[in-house]
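My current task is to audit a protein record that another person submitted. I need someone to confirm that the token line plausibly describes how this chain folds. Take the sequence as given and treat only the tokens as open to question. This is what I was given:
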Amino acid sequence: MNPVHSPAPSALAPALISEAQLRADVLEALAWEPGVDARRLVVQVCRGRVSLLGRVPDLASLQCALRAAARVRGVQEVCHSLAVQPLQHALLWADPLLSSPGAVPAQAWARPR
């Protein structure tokens, strides 16, 4: 008769953590990560697989977000659909002073080469 082997504790962890709790844990890890703005990210969880969606300002932030999510207990896999969008471009178009009539575009202040 073959002995029955119980799975390793790490294999049991995903079954013990609900998807809602895992999502909350990933969001908390992202919120504590200094290089990541968690407010711009959406986290989806399905059977231990975490999907990150949203925008980050640079590749360093993207890597920080992926590492932070992967460190959470119960995460089996991390995938993403994160777009890299530099903040300076997002803020430039969101600035009401620059979008008002008669405003001077930022390019007008650049020195010619």
